[in-house]
Amino acid sequence: MGFLKHRSLLKLNLKFFLDYEFLRDGRYTNVASGETAPDGSDMSVLLCDTSNDDYLANFADGQVWQSPFRNWVYESGIVLNQDIGIRDLVLPKVASGVYIGGTFKATSSAHESYDAAYSHHIDWINGRIIFDNALAPDESVTMAGFSYKHIRFDFEDAFNRELREGYLESEYATNPLTSHNLIYPSGGLQPFPAVFIETRGRKWKPFEMGNRSLIAKDRIVNHVWTNNSMDRDDIVDIISYQDHKSLPLVDFNFAPLPLSGILNELSPSYIPYQNLLKNPTLSGIVGTLNGTATAVGYVCYIVETEIINDPPFQQFERARVEFVIQTYMYHPTSTLGINTGSYQFKGGNEYF
Asked: Of 92, 116, 149, which closes a domain?
């Protein structure tokens, strides 16, 4: 992937912004080791996935162990919204390891319970444990405890609505046929509810006379897909109430993305999203002034919001929340007609 420009960064930042806001609003479920689902199943049990559809990694049978829940919470230091916190909601549990035959094996090599024979990686997006060495397919593997998010955020290219198969999901991963049974959504199945972020058009307006800065007004569409109208309306409410909030545009050309690699592991240089919003100085950055950069390039503003209910598609309820997001493109010193390749921005370092 090349150097990210404004539009790509805007879409990426909106995903992290909304994802974090739903966590702050308590839209997650904690699963303890041995916790029982309504059908009597153990929600913490992992199943051996032998489908081997990971063409990039080509895993052997016994390496991949799948949870019935995708989209695990990896974010640390969540600060709950005040109106949610008064309900004594328990903070999400960040997974730290697995039980093999009843014995805890930590993910981190720095943990006292780490066992190199069972070294493994956490695929946070797909809710999987991937072992370096294959286990016997009938091995007993359970999670020590984790949390999963109720709503999945992705981009419009991740779900071709007419060609990709959807997967209904409720609090306990209801499948399309039988209520309250655990399912294991491996491969390309799309767990719902989900929100798909799409960039539409852009308009410009000048900042002020004699200034080379511009105001970019981007239209962003949040496509909401659920299996019932109550979930749809709840998600629409939370998204639409972000109206007139500021959206710091973290520059992920310099700031580390939280998950990395084809296994979607936590990046070794992970910085929590709420800490990036404080605009820390990032050191050791090649190709920047003095080898440093600040995390935030611009601050955007959600200036308009519109809610549109779409007709149902098959068994799914749908809606759109459309944003107009305004960004002040601040580069007043550039010469008219001269493309220098980079500009000086508010953050004090070179971006874009």
From this structure: 149
pLDDT digits (tens, 9 = 90+) for 118-164: 999 999 998 899 999 999 999 999 999 999 999 999 998 877 654 45
Which range marks the domain in which residue 283 is found?
A: 1-25+193-352
Q: Are 216 and 323 within one domain?
A: yes
**pLDDT at 226 exceeding the cut of 70:** yes
Q: Are residues 234 and 305 in the same domain?
A: yes
Mean pLDDT (whole number) for 37-63:
79
pLDDT of residue 209: 62
What is the 3-state secondary structure of the chain? CCCCCHHHHHHHHHHHHHHHHHHHCCCEEEEECCCECCCCCECCECEECCCCCCCCCCCCCCCEEECCCCCECCCCCCCCCHHHHCCCCCCCCCCCEEEECCEEEECCCCCCCCCHHHCEEEECCCCEEEECCCCCCCCCEEECEEEEECCEEEEHHHCCCCCCCEECCCCCCCCCCCCCCCCCCCCCCEECCEEEEEEEEEEEEECCCCCCCEEEEEEEEEEEEECCHHHHHHHHHHHHCCCCCEEEEECCCCCCCCEECCCCEECCCCCCHHHHCCCCEEECCCCCHHHEEECEEEEEEEEEEEEEEEEEECCEEEEEEEEEEEEEECCCCCCCCCCCCCEECCCCCEEC
pTM of structure? 0.85
